[in-house]
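Problem: given the chain below (154 residues), write out its structure.
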Amino acid sequence: MKMAGMIATLLLASAGSLQAADLRLHALLDGASVVSATDSLGTGEATATLSDDGKVRLTMVFGGLSSNVTGATLQLGSSAENGAAVAPLDVRMEQAAGSVVDAELTLTPLAAGSVRAGNSYLLVTTSNYPKGEIRGQLVPQPVRLETQGGAITP
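Solution.
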């Protein structure tokens, strides 16, 4: 019990010098994650960082799609629902594989709050699947808190 009290005291004492890092997000895209699921063999992966000012930096790769890409978007919604498109992603059309590298999106405070809560996803549409061939939920990753003397990971 004394050890727990000491740890709590140390954490409270250092709280003034703690700064939260940007929120890191990760998504695995596939046909099974689309609402309603597709039988696509396509896959993808994305990483993103959401900063406190509502800017998202995003990198995504995907391939194995059944037909040419017609678009990709960041959308709001839980993994069980389709939601509104927030921002189109600049992807090369007319190919079955592609990437988005270091894209920067500026979100409204409402959209940034949804992303922070894990209620956003990436959707890639194709000629064969105009409502979405692959999809991946942007999942917040463990937080890393920086201190002046090192790092604390909760």
